[in-house]
């Protein structure tokens, strides 16, 4: 097993991504706006901060890791092109970063990925290859093309440069709100939470970090609780509306970071994800995709089960929301 990512690597990532990646805002969730929109606010609930990774040029946090990886490559490697496999947001991150470095980008995506994400990837210059719904389908196809054409792989999560890029979010949260005592992050393959938790634990011995995932794709919680890396089937994980969190297993390197630095993993229901999305649409200025709303769902509905805290930062990991789903959520109201 590789050594874990260091704070020095995270600081280097900060320098590398500066000027391309946005230092996203951290906004307090206004309980008055929630009440005005018809949402009940629990008495005694902690203050909630929203880390708006939807503000990135591609609408999600994935640009941080993708650009940190691609920007580290030399010119000869860049000239051969890069490849990845992704359900959507990492696809856009790689396509955007490759365009910045004038490199060819090939993206292997599952047939279940939202059309809006497939089209966005193409508009950024990515060459999209569609395969079956299972995580292994897209990974195997990407590895096949990598070997055939000499592309460089930009893994979606199981890579130290990708982890270091995602870790910069943790540094920013602590700088923006030093009083935060709990951070909630979506978890799928583990790139985001392994990075955030590594940065936070290197900088503070007081802040807790928890992962959040859909109960219908709860492989990370099972892995964390059993301390054994488990895999769920594609049939299981594709049941959730949170398309970005359908990965069937944590990455091995990510799991090592999670076991070392993460304090726990909780799951949320589909109804709770929908409700959190409506809160963001009606009581904030942010647009969330389902995967980006799971951390808020945990803060709203499970805060009493989490470590006692006065201020929670939730990572809104992406905002690439299907327009039809947005209309449906707004029509349903609360």
From TrEMBL:
Its cofactor is pyridoxal 5'-phosphate. InterPro entries: TrpB-like_PALP, TrpB-like_PALP_sf. Pfam families: PALP (PF00291). It comes from the Bacteria. Residues 43-318 form the Tryptophan synthase beta chain-like PALP domain. Belongs to the serine/threonine dehydratase family. This is Pyridoxal-5'-phosphate-dependent protein beta subunit.
